[in-house]
Amino acid sequence: xxxxxxxxxxxxxxxxxxxxxxxxxxxxxxxxxxxxxxxxxxxxxxxxxxxxxxxxxxxxxxxxxxxxxxxxxxxxxxxxxxxxxxxxxxxxxxxxxxxxxxxxxxxxxxxxxxxxxxxxxxxxxxxxxxxxxxxxxxxxxxxxxxxxxxxxxxxxxxxxxxxxxxxxxxxxxxxxxxxxxxxxxxxxxxxxxxxxxxxxxxxxxxxxxxxxxxxxxxxxxxxxxxxxxxxxxxxxxxxxxxxxxxxxxxxxxxxxxxxxxxxxxxxxxxxxxxxxxxxxxxxxxxxxxxxxxxxxxxxxxxxxxxxxxxxxxxxxxxxxxxxxxxxxxxxxxxxxxxxxxxxxxxxxxxxxxxxxxxxxxxxxxxxxxxxxxxxxxxxxxxxxxxxxxxxxxxxxxx
Length: 398
Known about the structure:
Layout: H1 3-27, H2 55-61, E1 66-67, E2 76-77, H3 79-98, H4 105-133, H5 138-160, H6 169-194, E3 219-221, E4 228-234, H7 239-251, E5 257-263, H8 282-291, H9 296-305, H10 307-314, H11 320-328, H12 339-354, E6 363-366, E7 369-370, H13 380-389
Helix pairs in contact: 1-3, 1-5, 3-4, 3-6, 4-5, 4-6, 8-9, 8-11, 8-12
């Protein structure tokens, strides 16, 4: 057995291990409950991380962690076909070893081509993680490293071969490619068939008993002037709210909603329903959003982009949030902290009380039907698609 062959087999096993553990992490959320997100190069060795701002949590809950989300609750995790591809690479490597084909140019050429697939996929996923998400998942990095090592080892195997006969490569390529498709297709189809059907929960999670906005506390957000009416319970410094907005935008369903936001800061400096401040500076930032008028979306986007900076600064300096946001939007300075905006924020909280809202963000109501809290992350596309398709309930005449 040659060193590059050993390296290839080890890389394939490691890739299976990391992709398998990542798939298991994803599948653990299919019960619509909160679970630990394990983030380690040696899964299970280090403490798990459920923080909504952690790299592993961000990547798991991102739109890129799975596909076909509108058809399957949570979608099919991309780690699953990754696991299947590494299993196929292991199968091909063992076949080449046991049948003594390390000098067969046809076998080694196909091995290089097969190993190129996870390597190229890793480049694309790595780009999305860094550029689009600004986060890194250690398990994902393990998959990337395994992919590149497998490709390098495949090149090494081919370079060390002494055979030159490529006759019949087209036929071998076709048969081997069909094997690879089977390796991927079978587990993906089984997953899709066995995935839970959660359509029974759509429209069963409650509504707003008093949805009328008599005090004008609901702020129009987004660009849609038409669509189904939606109310979002919102904290501009909430990482989960930021994640929700990203998933909603990626789903393409935002265009079917006419959205309004209710400010609900998880900060006890203004919100008496919160015993401990979860997001320092959220009260001040909520005031900034209420003051923004025509720049509401711009201020929210700025708050999302600077969440960590604002929360860290506000944890030691109560005025830091105002200083930071007014540096970006000087026109808000006179409004933030004024009696008028404080009264409006208080009325927002009173709206939450009147509608018996849980102390939780984000929440969303579409035509007064609540999207279940468990469906605001992985199940968003699946549940919201069905909620939007449901007939609008007729309003009772008074």
